[in-house]
Each structure stands twice: as structure tokens, then as C-alpha cells.
Write a structure and sequence with these properties.
The protein is mostly helical. The protein contains 7 helices and no strands. The protein is globular and about 40 Å long.
């Protein structure tokens, strides 16, 4: 059962990879959610995949402090805020604030927003699987799961 479930979840990840949401944004969002959730395996994976895709070390190091960093675009900042709010959904009684959604909608079209929301849900699922299973970090090779 477990392997079958992971196979289906992984196929959703492949569909998102091919979505109109920029790859850099996908990696930054996945990295930030993974940091929040304490998923070492996913932090390792997304930093390595992002670096292989051309992301700079400086930007990767500053994802955890994106609010104070001037190196992210307004669109990336909107995506990171939505990712944080969607990841910390239990912390906000009213869910994701309307202004966070409106800000994301200013920067992304309908298909990109759908991909962004789906990515946030998916990375949170992967984070929970890996944290529950205590999946160790460090051995991931870039592109290993594609």
C-alpha cells in the first residue's frame, strides 16, 4: 500500500515540474516549506536540485530569511508568503489571509496559481511522509526522482 501511494504522489510532482510555474519558484517554495516542516531530506533535495538548475548559493542560503533579503523578486516573495501561510495553516484560525492570496494573484496567472497551490499541498505531504518515516538527509543526488 505505502509504495503504491508514494508512486501516485510522485506522479503529481512530475506533473507540477512541467507546469507553467517557473522552476526557480517551485524550488524556492519547496525549500521554504521543507525548512518550516523540519524535513531534512526535502531540504537536501531541493537545495541540490535548485543549485543544479542554476540557483545561486546566496539565494538558497537566504530562503529562510526571505523577508529581509532583497534578492528575491516580488513574485517570488508572494509565492514564498503563500507557501508559508499554506504550510502553517493550522496556526491561522482563518486560513490563508485574503491579502496574501491577492498578492500572489497579482504575480501569477490562473494556471500558475493552481500549480503553486498544488505544489504547496504536495510538498507538505512529502514533508510529512519523510518526517514521520525519519528519512535521513544527505544522500540525495540531483534529479534522482525524475
Amino acid at each position: 500500500m505505502g509504495a503504491k501511494f508514494v508512486k501516485y504522489v510522485a506522479s503529481a510532482g512530475r506533473a507540477l515540474h512541467d507546469s507553467p510555474l517557473p522552476v526557480a519558484t517551485q524550488q524556492l517554495v519547496a525549500l521554504r516549506a521543507s525548512q518550516i516542516n523540519g524535513c531534512g531530506f526535502c531540504v537536501d533535495m531541493h537545495t541540490k536540485d535548485a543549485a543544479q538548475a542554476g540557483e545561486t548559493a546566496q539565494r538558497l542560503h537566504l530562503v529562510a530569511a526571505w523577508r529581509e533579503a532583497k534578492i528575491f523578486t516580488d513574485a517570488e516573495r508572494a509565492a514564498l508568503e503563500l507557501a508559508e501561510q499554506g504550510t502553517r495553516i493550522a496556526d491561522a484560525a482563518g486560513g490563508v489571509p485574503d491579502e496574501v492570496w491577492a498578492n500572489a494573484a497579482k504575480h501569477y496567472d490562473e494556471d500558475q496559481l493552481a500549480a503553486l497551490v498544488s505544489l504547496i499541498a504536495l510538498i507538505n505531504s512529502f514533508n510529512r511522509l519523510n518526517v514521520i518515516l525519519q528519512q535521513p538527509a544527505g544522500d540525495y543526488q540531483p534529479g534522482q526522482w525524475r
